[in-house]
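I hope you will forgive my troubling you with a question about protein structure. Could you please explain, in whatever detail you think fit, how the structure tokens follow from the sequence? Thank you for your consideration; the sequence and its tokens are set out here.
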Amino acid sequence: MKDLENIPAVMEEIGQRAKAAAVVLATASPEAKTLALTSAAQAVWDNRADILEANAKDLAFGAEKGLSDAMMDRLMLDEARIGAICDGLRAVAAQQDPVGEVIEEWDRPNGLHIRRVRTPLGVIGVIYESRPNVTADAGALCLKSGNAVILRGGSESFHSSGALHRCLVEGLKEAKLPEDAIQLVPTRDRAAVQAMLTMTGTIDVIVPRGGKGLVGLVQREARVPVFAHLEGIVHIYIDKDADPEKALRVVMNAKTRRTGICGAAECLLVHEDAADTIGQGVIRALLEKGVEVRADPALQSVSGTVPADDTDWGFEFLAMVMAAKQVKDLSEAIEHIRKYGSQHTDCIITEDDAAAERFFAELDSAILMRNASTQFADGGEFGMGAEIGIATGKMHARGPVGATQLTSFKYLVEGDGVTRA
């Protein structure tokens, strides 16, 4: 590795090494990739004391920087979360290998036999903030899909990410796969991010995972294609035909289980016919749990709410704060979500099938739910083992990005000496 003072040279070397590793990974056997991931999972568990020690350094750094409670929660590791990281690695390992999968196959009258098969993207750059578990998730998913990856974690998770990365490398060694298949940028210097955004010769796609500032920077300045993971301005709409018990259970979990994740609910919309019978009870329960509810005038009759202002609509709080608004019907709810949502995840609570079908048809969020907590907006919960992010764009990958979404495809065309007239 070159002198870390020369960031462009460092990143160029990392990129070239990743590109060479990607060539090997593209034809690596499913068995080798599985062994690398299961070995990495064991290494994470065996080294959990070292990982927690590294995480303590990061937490001290984050406290010194004045990180918010939500960011500190994202940063924090404990034995249970390390166990979940191990489970995620093993879950990805157990999945069917997507590389080489025949997506479609057909014969043509001209004598051609055509197959469309999955192929790796090549080299993926992942730029993320705070959450050290992304190191393991992104490394695992890229490896499973036959891609080399360059990881640039946040400055806050520098030590934790480094400790987890060493475990991933142990897995690669065990499986005799290139160690350069999973590389971690070895500096906090922001110049490394700028370099990654312009590495068109070695990086095939960039995945940003973090706040609006990070994603906006990447979208504005990247010359490499981007899978955007934008903020989660998540809405829950309580319809007039909602079941009160389901509404209470779902909203409370969606808001309070973990406030710092992108699937946490940020805005509650209540049909005017359900405001007195369901909405007020849900709002009281939120208040009792310690949530600050910023309500529109129609819902301010609930004691303890505070008046909402225009900036509360379309805002990702990532905290024990929630906006609440009464709407006259489903049409107004849909209109509000279209105006203020981020096309990440939105939910309807209703027993009316027609209302649910209309909600699903007329909104274009990456994830739409009915009678289910938005905290399920997660690749692991979708059966993907883990995710590299929730893509909110409309090109190539959308929603939870798992191993399959990190592949492209190519056409394999065979004939028997056929020629075109």
User: Anything to note?
Assistant: The first strand starts at residue 102 and ends at 107. The chain has two domains: 7-229+401-414, 234-376.
